[in-house]
User: Fold these one by one.
Assistant:
Number 1:
Amino acid sequence: MISRISQSFIKNMRDYKAGLECGNIIKHQYVDGNLIDLQSDSMAEGSYFEFMWTTALPKNKKTPLPVYMKTPLKNKAARDLKVSDMDQGYRRIHFNSGYVKSVFDKLGLKIVSFGKLLVKGRHEGTIDIIALVTKSQEFGDVVWNVGDKIVIDVKYSGLLNDKWSRHGWMWSDIQKEYHGTQAKQYNYVSELPFYFFVVSSTNKEVEGTFEPPEIKFFHVPIDSHMTEVHLSEGNSLLEMLKFESEVGFKPRPEYGKCSKCSIREGCLDRFDFPRPSTVDLTLGL
């Protein structure tokens, strides 16, 4: 069983507590200590983007690889493949990763550390970027002085202007809770100001080149009360994990989730076909 609290653990246990996550997944990850190594296409592109920008490896420590178009593969050996032979999403990543490097230069930020695990007490976090400020600047209420250090979490997303999904970046209440969990955790373990650097993954390709990606750069101030509430929730969820491991986790199979689940083989609770559910047409007040 885990002994340290991560921001991912808090999010997943929060979902389990709310009845949104399967207990078998929670047990597999946090009691049995297994890595969930199942990435969607967007997650794979995000890992490749971070690798191309900072050379940071994902949690599975495997070097992210690009996906190539099928047509060139018929006529070329793997060693002869070029960026132009990649699927559009990966060609875009090569453009965008180079573009954000130039943006960092203009901001006067120098990467001094990436992919670093920080531990404070029973809390931990793997920091995407610790950056050094190389020129003094003011951005409204944000003031940078030469020598300052800041923590930056990198996001590669197609949801920069989505306010409904919790993964979006319009700072609706659900997004404040979801992204705020990471901001509070990383601010606590690093003791440094926290920022999100969100790069669009949907900029258009025009005549063989890409338009500059939309970028949103967010400073997330954290006060002592926020930190106190966050730490209390993390500790409470860890105690809940210990209790559930003794009494038994509740499996919550769903056909859609089970069909994509990385531990579906051998799972006795999985759904192999959709179940009918009852709809109550009574109108609420």
Number 2:
Amino acid sequence: MKDTYPSKLEGKNKRDISNNSIKLSSHTLVRSFNKFYYNEIIKLLLNVYEGKISIPRLKVIRMVRLGLSGIDNIRSFEGINGLLNSYSDDTFVEFVCDDVTYLTKFDTDKDSMGVMHYRIFISFPENQTPRESIANELLAYAFQYTSTFKKGCVELYYDGKRESLSSVSVDFIDPADSKVEDVFVENDIKRDIERFIYTFNNFNELDVPLRYLLSGKPGLGKTAIIRSIISECSKTGIVIIPKQMNGADWLTFEFAKLFKPALICIDDVDLIYGKREDGFGKQNLNSFLNMLDGIIQNKFFLIATTNDKQLVDLAASRPGRFDEIIDFGDFDRKFYDDIINQQTDNTVIINLFDEGIYKSMESKKVTGAYIVNLIKQLKIMVKMNPGFSKDDLHNYLNRNFKGFYKSQVKESKNLGFGN
């Protein structure tokens, strides 16, 4: 976003804020931000002002607000909402960075469409030469020292207006508590995932990012593994989940580069980036490849999933771009008892599963997700029919499985215009 230098600022932007008559001058940088950046910069300056953090190059002289009763000193805030409500229009900060004095005004307003705009006016004396990047420098300090988003799990949304980070909305989500050891997958996979989490949680010491591609058909535990990764990693760093990026997926990676450590989670990566020959996804794929191993080393972590690794372009999945590709094979019979007992303590349902049922399930190569859904249906069927038998379960299993994976119609006939 380009800095501008208005020749004159009218109205409240020129109001005196102290006995020294310091005011915004014609030498002013005007920057527009989204709510996220706006709050991050205010939070940084307030923490420096209150002495909670020390940055050698940066000193905050004062923070004041022009109210109806005159000048108020800025005091601590409680949370992001309190911050935004307290420090909007007519809030001024005087700070010094590398011996240049700046006077900053924070301003919010709604346009005719009801869209909120967040602007920061950074003014400086005529006899001093500022850096045009000063706003970005403040933001970089905020990410390093005081960012609200240094830890936790967030979802990103892109409004489609302008391909810049200022158009990306950031929302916290509260991930469910989950542990790797509770997921029904092979021990080798668990060890690989535990190593990933360990590397993330000890990034300050190891300084090595990892990128995994999880491959396997639905229902084999990929989603459960990702939940456990999010649960563990969000305690020490930021976990980023792109939700609606409207074709600007590269902004997800730009956002991740602001934090260390940062983990990006991408579900069904093949649907987003596709293969090189697909055409429609070529531009997104090229951006994705550049982010994975461009000229500048990017130190974000990545977990991506696909139902079939062959759907992911070979150039994206080669060693060096992903550190590991983990194949989730067929759901092992040894997990049947555990997952059934995890889903229900109803002994009537548990006793329905004999060796014959197990062999039928094994021959069908049912997934863990399928078994979870099966138990969900059995709870209802047993409640409706207390006499529900093993034969009933066997018949239902065959019919239900066909519903997901095969045709239930024994003889198909052409309909409509066919002969």
Number 3:
Amino acid sequence: MPLASPRKILHLDLDAFFCAVEEGRDPALRGKAFAVGGRPDERGVVASCSYAARRFGVRSAMPMSRALKLCPGLLILPSRHKAYQAVSQKVMARLGALTPLVEQISIDEAFLDMTDLPESGEALARQLQALIRDELGLPCSVGVATNKLIAKIATDVGKAASQTGGHRPPQTGGYPNAIMVVPPGQEAAFLAPLPAQTLWGVGPKTADALASLGIHTIGDLARWPSADLARRFGKVGVDLAGRARGLDDRPVVTGHEAKSISQETTFTRDVKDGKALRDTLRDLSDQVGRRLRQSGLSGATVKLKLRWPDFTTLTRQTTLSQPTDQGDEIYNAVTRLFDDVWRPGKAVRLLGTAVTGLGTSVQQLSLLDEGSEKKRRLQTAIDELRERFGSRVVQRASQLKDEG
């Protein structure tokens, strides 16, 4: 019986995606130091930044105020998430036309299993890169390997090398446009010189623990006895031993069920007023309920996320007697959690609401429960109005300011 051919797994990463979309809208931005994100005076963070800005040390997830200190001439653009989502959908549609085995892992990343195609992995990567560039005007980098772990790391290594001039692929517009191929059988050798924290599952604490043993690179980790890693780190150690050798048999998964639906807000200034905080929870709960209904989902576990001014963050959760997709029920549950941890006058920096334990929404209404049916029809009408005219078109009387 012939041996199966090695898999051809490609990892696609859209380079500085939000910035690339903005440059497509306004070509004058090309080559300039700019960032997409929130305003520095509103505690905004960098969602994405151009490669010109990165040369000053600006990075994603950095406070925008810090980014401005590093790059005083930085241009700041507000995030246009709907526009980015629309472009992302176009990209994923192109990928789906190449192979049905596409696993989207974020708005700008995806895995593709192209094993059944006759071309080499490198040829497929170049075709894919050209397709995204020519049809959508977007730069992207691609990692090619026999599994998802190596393909993802290959993308990261290729992008880093392109910026330092090492293994430098063709450049356009300052973007990496990198392609990195790890041939079958070379997985462990490719990983060996990389820092141990490059591996999935090695966070700061694990990296410190490994360093205390003299394990600094993935090669060091691969040479360490697997049994000892299992003894010291449990299942995590077992997984790390396999990953360090480049082993990963996970398939490309073409569909993911949502695990939770959440909404949160960071206040421009810390808020102490109880009514303002509860009004915020009301808004967040309504938004989560609406997203649940739009997705045809409901959930039984409601979570509160709260952050104090010193950045201490806590979460609390409660389980309802039955799943819900209604903002009122979510709000009642999350408010009870809030009242358990908040004391009058205590300032709050961030609030968030989430519903987990999701499943298909099923209406289990009694034939005699006309009140529930009327309430659902009213909610559907409100959803339609908000979809057409904006989320503020219908408000609760308790949320309206006195006009006297």
